[in-house]
Hints:
two-stranded antiparallel ribbon, 1 helix
Amino acid sequence: MIKVVKxxxxxxxxxxxxxxAMYEFTDIKNMAPEGSxxxxxxxxxxxxxxxxxxxxEEVNKLLKEIYYxxxxxxxxx
Length: 77
Ligand SMILES: [Zn+2]
């Protein structure tokens, strides 16, 4: 039997831009219990945002401010 599932379009996060997102931003979250030495086994990739093709830089900057504040970080991939 053929089943039809509606896909949810992801929308660009840049201000009032409502274009359909072409890019997904992810970050690595450490889910290890406190004191665990095997942290790498608990790393989980989480999606933190989306952008259209025009706002990759702007959304990257916005997400960095939200998730890392003034702390220096590598590019969110
Ligand atoms: Zn946009």
